[in-house]
Design brief:
The protein is of the alpha/beta class. The protein has a single domain, classed as Rossmann fold (3-Layer(aba) Sandwich), CATH 3.40.50. It has a five-stranded parallel β-sheet, sandwiched between helices. Helix 4 links the parallel strand 4 and strand 5. The two termini are 15 Å apart.
Length: 122
């Protein structure tokens, strides 16, 4: 599976990429903000995207909106420490497959990847 990982924190990206690689033989593409995420999504057409919500240049909400415009079937997991009900509802309305609370765990990433693979095979 080709996976795009978007987070402005290099430490978070590195940790997520490391977990993804433990979960299988996946190709990983990285981006450090929402604008770069949209560019990488357009160029690479990933199967799945892990998208941070709060980033400079372009936030995850806008990036998610644009990604879903490019591909309404895009599978996106939004990652954030902001667990307010209105935030979770908003990203769900924008088309996120799942909302993951930060800090992420290896088991949660593995579960989401398994859900993504099931969704891809429908």
């Amino acid at each position: 599976m080709k996976i795009l990982v978007v987070d402005d924190s290099i430490a978070q990206r590195t940790m997520i990429v490391s977990i993804i690689r433990k979960c299988g033989d996946h190709q990983v593409i990285e981006a450090s903000d929402g604008q770069e995420a949209v560019e990488q999504f357009t160029k690479s057409n990933p199967d799945f995207t892990f998208l941070d919500l709060n980033m400079p240049v372009m936030d995850g909400k806008e990036a998610l909106r644009l990604i879903k415009e490019i591909n309404p079937e895009a599978l996106v997991a939004v990652l954030s420490a902001d667990i307010q009900k209105k935030t979770v509802e908003m990203v769900n309305q924008l088309g996120a497959m799942v909302f993951i609370n930060k800090p992420v765990t290896e088991s949660r990433i593995g579960l989401v990847l398994a859900q993504a693979e099931l969704a891809m095979n429908r």
